[in-house]
Recover the amino acids of this structure.
């Protein structure tokens, strides 16, 4: 199996405010890419645009998964096509148990043509699978009965996202600061879980400021985003450099992008999305 | 939002309730409301003079009272309704005794099946009369009475007369007066001292005819230390003109007893549902109302608990779902009339597709009801911008030494929640249903499994349905 995720000249606006200004990125099945960049440079925006958030309008360019044009699909169709994003800030769904949510999600993703009301994965089979995945992540079995992200600590949320990824076995995963809020142990577990799915059975885009997750999952490519564009691409050594020395060199080298970044930050007025 | 297939499936499901039975009534009073009709009903039932007087006096009260000026708009022509329709001559003790077409009706609604699986007793009311009744033999042996209220007037006159109309007198409100004048059917239950009924007793109310009024009257007496769970279900087919359902339910919970009354109604969109329900709880008794209001054109219903002696508890859980063309004006009423009483109201309302859901509640703490505690939580979920939710909480506190809590929240279904679930492969329709089910989960988990399943299924229908 080989798949390819191709982002071509992507321009994205939120509430008519331009954020991404022409992003190009190609991720092949089995590759790990790191996406770094200062706050507000557009990393999460890229992830959300790929995942299909309705408030992130694509004004130009396109996103392809193999021959399928994702830009024409709703978020649920993209998920069924094999896209997954572990969110920086997952939302709570009170009253909905993790297990019920995951059973629905896993059924739909595994049977992309399933219609509403058709059978879910048989309960026994599902429970067994969930239990073993939770054991791998050293999660308390009680977790399955808790309400989705409701009252979770930061670390618990990130673990729940990893568990969801493990259950959905996506073709391409975007991990948005999944390591922040996790202690060293938890990062190790998360990495083990990624390894379990098989790094060669998934394309990975890891958005991070830290090196922990990257140590366990060394990237073949590192991209640096600034002002809504990828301004530089290198190998694992670039990630290490940015982690150790910060973005000063990048900011100086790309004054236009830096100006755009400052402008976006200045006009920042949070909009409910 | 949903694909054609699912919409069709949903319509198929809704038709599960929306069917009409070709049934020949044994007796149908003419349309309209006057003393002659009231006397005719009383005569058909061979009632004693006191009941006939009670009815006629109630009719006068009904005529003298204005329509309520609050709540929803009630546009009923009282002269254009059939007040009494007798579907069959006698009540069946087995389903085989019930006329075939009526039995088929209840078969389709799944009542005999539920009876076999998990019920301790059943009453099935079709139009004005109870057409089928059963009660498990061991409960009969223990002295439990579960009969229709008409039969109780004849067979348990003293017990009935001691309580009938004492909790909700005819002059309580216009619709209580109407019910008192033309009542027919409903359940009469007596649970003797110390008898704990393990499985639910269920009554099912079906309106079948057009322009029909259904006015059942229920009286439940739970003696000291006894316990019961009573469940009622209600449905009707869809007609172009309005029908009226106006029940009165009176409950007496004696010292140390426990009563839970669960309603899962799914009325068609042309029914005015104007119901008065009230319980009194004596020392250390617990009364719980679990009230699921789906369907109807307008529901006005505020189950009440009057806590009359120390240690009494009142709990009301209310779910209202208003879709297009529906107004749910539902809520609860707690009256703390003695010290050390505890009350709780949890209300969850959902409005969708232009529907309107209102919470209207009263907590009253009488003077000297010191050390009483009451807590009210009402949450509203609005699914789209066409829909509406209102909250009318009334609190009257006449004693200082009490603790009263009130929380209210209104939320719109979040785009962020929808996106989160959709990004995990759920369709938009599945995602909204999941969010709504999560919203009512704290209430549904209080229901026995069978009813929780039923409740979730009804919500699912409302979510998918093209109704309204
Ligand atoms: N929902 C939103 N409403 C308003 N502005 C937004 C929204 N999402 C992102 N932005 C803006 O887009 C820019 C990039 O944000 P983001 O993609 O979150 O950056 P990063 O993840 O790199 O920190 C910021 O200036 C931010 O304010
Ligand atoms: Mg971010």
């Amino acid at each position: 199996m080989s798949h390819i995720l191709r982002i071509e000249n992507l321009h994205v606006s939120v509430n008519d405010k331009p954020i991404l200004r022409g992003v190009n990125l190609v991720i092949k099945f089995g590759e790990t890419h790191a996406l770094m960049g200062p706050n507000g440079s557009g990393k999460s925006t890229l992830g959300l645009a790929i995942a299909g958030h309705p408030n992130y309008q694509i004004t130009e360019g396109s996103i392809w998964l193999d021959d399928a044009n994702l830009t024409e699909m709703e978020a649920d169709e993209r998920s069924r096509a094999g896209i997954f994003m572990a969110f920086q800030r997952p939302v709570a769904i009170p009253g909905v148990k993790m297990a019920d949510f995951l059973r629905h999600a896993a059924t739909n993703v595994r049977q992309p043509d399933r219609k509403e009301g058709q059978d879910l994965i048989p309960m026994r089979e599902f429970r067994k699978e969930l239990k073993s995945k939770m054991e791998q992540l050293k999660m308390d079995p009680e977790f399955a009965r808790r309400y989705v992200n409701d009252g979770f600590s930061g670390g618990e949320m990130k673990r729940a996202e990893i568990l969801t990824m493990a259950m959905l076995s996506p073709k391409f995963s975007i991990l948005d600061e999944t390591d922040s809020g996790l202690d060293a142990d938890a990062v190790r577990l998360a990495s083990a879980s990624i390894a379990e799915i098989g790094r060669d059975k998934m394309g990975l885009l890891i958005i991070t400021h830290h090196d922990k997750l990257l140590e366990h999952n060394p990237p073949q490519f590192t991209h640096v985003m600034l002002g809504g564009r990828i301004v530089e691409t290198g190998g694992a050594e670039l990630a290490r450099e940015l982690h150790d020395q910060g973005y000063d060199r990048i900011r100086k080298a790309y004054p236009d992008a830096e100006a755009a970044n400052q402008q976006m930050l200045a006009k920042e007025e949070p909009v409910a999305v | 939002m949903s694909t054609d297939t699912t919409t069709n499936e949903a319509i198929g499901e809704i038709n599960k309730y929306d069917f009409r039975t070709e049934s020949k009534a044994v007796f149908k009073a003419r349309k309209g409301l006057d003393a002659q009709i009231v006397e005719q009903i009383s005569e058909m039932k061979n009632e004693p003079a006191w009941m006939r007087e009670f009815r006629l006096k109630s009719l006068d009260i009904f005529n003298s009272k204005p329509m309520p000026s609050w709540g929803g708009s009630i546009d009923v022509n009282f002269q254009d309704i059939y007040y009494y329709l007798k579907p069959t001559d006698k009540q069946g003790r087995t389903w085989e005794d019930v006329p075939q077409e009526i039995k088929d009706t209840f078969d389709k609604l799944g009542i005999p099946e539920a009876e076999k699986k998990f019920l301790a007793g059943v009453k099935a009311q079709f139009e004005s009369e109870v057409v089928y009744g059963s009660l498990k033999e061991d409960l009969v042996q223990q002295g439990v009475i579960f009969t229709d209220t008409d039969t109780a007037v004849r067979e348990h006159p003293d017990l009935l007369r001691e309580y009938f109309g004492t909790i909700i007198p005819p002059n309580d409100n216009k619709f209580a007066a109407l019910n008192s004048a033309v009542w027919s059917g409903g359940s009469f239950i007596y649970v003797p001292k110390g008898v704990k009924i393990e499985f639910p007793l269920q009554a099912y109310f079906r309106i079948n005819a057009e322009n029909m009024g259904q006015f059942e009257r229920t009286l439940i007496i739970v003696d000291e230390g006894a316990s019961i769970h009573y469940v009622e279900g209600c449905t009707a087919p869809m007609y172009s003109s309005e029908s009226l359902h106006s029940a009165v339910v009176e409950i007496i919970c004696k010292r140390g007893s426990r009563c839970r009354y669960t309603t899962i109604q799914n009325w068609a969109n042309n029914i005015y549902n104007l119901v008065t329900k009230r319980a009194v709880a004596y020392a250390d008794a617990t009364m719980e109302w679990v009230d699921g209001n789906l369907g109807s054109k307008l529901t006005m219903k505020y189950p009440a608990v009057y806590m009359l002696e120390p240690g009494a508890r009142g709990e009301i859980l209310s779910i209202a779902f208003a879709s297009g063309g529906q107004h749910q004006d539902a809520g609860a009423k707690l009256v703390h009339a003695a010290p050390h009483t505890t009350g709780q109201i949890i209300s969850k309302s959902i409005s969708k597709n232009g529907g309107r859901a209102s919470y209207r509640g009263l907590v009253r703490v009488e003077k000297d009801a010191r050390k009483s505690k009451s807590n009210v939580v009402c949450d509203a979920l609005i699914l789209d911008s066409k829909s509406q939710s209102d909250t009318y909480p009334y609190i009257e506190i006449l004693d200082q030494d009490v603790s009263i809590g009130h929380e209210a929240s209104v939320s719109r279904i979040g785009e962020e929640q929808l996106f989160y679930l959709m990004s995990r492969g759920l369709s938009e329709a599945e995602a909204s249903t999941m969010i709504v089910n999560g919203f009512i989960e704290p209430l549904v988990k209080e229901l026995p499994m069978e009813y929780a399943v039923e409740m979730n299924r009804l919500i699912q229908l409302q979510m998918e349905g093209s109704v309204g």
Summary: Strands of chain A lie at 4-14, 17-28, 32-36, 56-65, 68-69, 83-86, 172-176, 203-207, 221-226, 229-234. The interface with chain B takes residues 51-55, 74-76, 78-80, 84-85, 87, 90-91, 93-96, 100-101, 104-106, 108-109, 115-117, 147-148, 164, 168, 273 of chain A (CB under 8 Å).
